[in-house]
Amino acid sequence: MSDPTDAPRQLPLVLAEPRGRAKPPRHLADLDEAGRKTLLEEMGLPGFRAKQLSTHYFARLVDDPAQMTDLPSTQRDELVAALLPELMTPLRTMEADKGATRKTLWRLFDGALVESVLMRYPGRATVCVSSQAGCGMACPFCATGQGGLQRNMSTAEIVEQVVAAQRALTRDEVAGGPGRVSNVVFMGMGEPLANYKAVIGAVRRLTDPAPAGLGMSARGVTVSTVGLVPRIRQLTEEGVPVTLALSLHAPDDELRNELVPINTRFSVAETVDAAWGYAERTKRRVSIEYAMMRGINDQGWRADLLADVLLARGDWGWVHVNLIPLNPTPGSKWTASDPRDEREFVRRLEAKGIPTTVRDTRGREIDGACGQLAATES
Question: Which of 10, 32, 76, 296 is deepest in the core (most CB within 10 A)?
Answer without folding.
Answer: 296
